[in-house]
Design goal:
The chain has 5 helices and 13 strands. The protein has 247 residues and is of the alpha+beta class.
């Protein structure tokens, strides 16, 4: 799902693939300060996401481009077209990413990238991230951030350097959900995470809904803002995998 196909403010695209729910939105605030950094004001949604499945193994990825859609959209598209399998271990994922070659394009933009691989049979999760997209586990009473965000964004035309990625590996508990999102959620009030969605808001959403309705409710909350604060000030790409105990 690419932002170029979801440019209208206030709208949410949602898709469901088995246990995985995905949402994409351009945001909702036409006066957002983020528009100062959009290369194409007529197509302002620079986020995107990708889901690949091979048996019990799922690859989940979100990307948040900057200075134009090209970098993140091209990266996700190339991954979907070139990768014939879901990597079975971190070394394979690293090798597959390191062979990516940026096509020539003059905008000079860049992107975040968060890639997580989940084995639903064993609960094993591994992956890596560049930039400030987030990976969390959510249970009935706890929210845990599972990756460390950084400022190592991928620059178009520069080879992917695996050593700059933040690496993660853990086992998903049976009662936990896996959640990935770009900073349009935790910075729905643009560049102000303290006035945006917090862990307590996530728990409230999860306690009031289930299944794909949870991700839709979370995306709607990001568009409206929390506790009277502005919301919908950036693009949103989000993926939710339901708890293993629901299998």
């Amino acid at each position: 799902m690419l932002g170029q196909d979801c440019p209208e403010l206030g709208m949410i695209q949602q898709r469901q693939l088995s246990c995985v729910s995905c949402c994409l939105s351009a945001g909702s605030d036409a006066n957002s300060p983020s528009f100062r950094f959009k290369a194409d004001k007529n197509s302002p949604n620079e986020d995107g996401l990708l889901v690949l499945r091979e048996g019990d193994c799922w690859l989940l990825a979100v990307a948040d481009s900057h200075l134009g859609q090209y970098a993140g959209h091209q990266l996700l598209t190339e991954m979907s077209l070139r990768w014939s399998c879901v990597p079975s271990h971190l070394g394979q994922l690293s090798l597959m990413l390191s062979t990516f070659e940026w096509p020539i394009e003059p905008s000079g933009g860049g992107t975040t990238l968060l890639v997580a691989v989940l084995n639903r049979a064993s609960g094993e999760v591994f992956g890596l991230s560049y930039g400030d997209s987030s990976l969390l586990t959510v249970s009935r009473d706890a929210v845990v951030l599972r990756n460390r965000v950084n400022d190592q964004f991928l620059a178009q035309g520069v080879p992917l350097r695996i050593e700059q990625a933040e690496v993660f590996r853990f086992v998903l508990a049976r009662d936990e959900s896996l959640l990935l999102y770009t900073d349009g959620v935790n910075e729905c009030c643009y560049r102000d995470p303290h006035r945006s969605i917090q862990a307590r808001h996530l728990l409230e959403v999860f306690q009031k809904s289930d299944g794909g309705a949870r991700l839709l409710a979370l995306t709607e909350l990001a568009l409206s803002g929390v506790e009277g604060q502005p919301g919908g000030q950036d693009n949103i790409a989000a993926i939710l995998v339901g708890p293993l105990e629901s299998d």
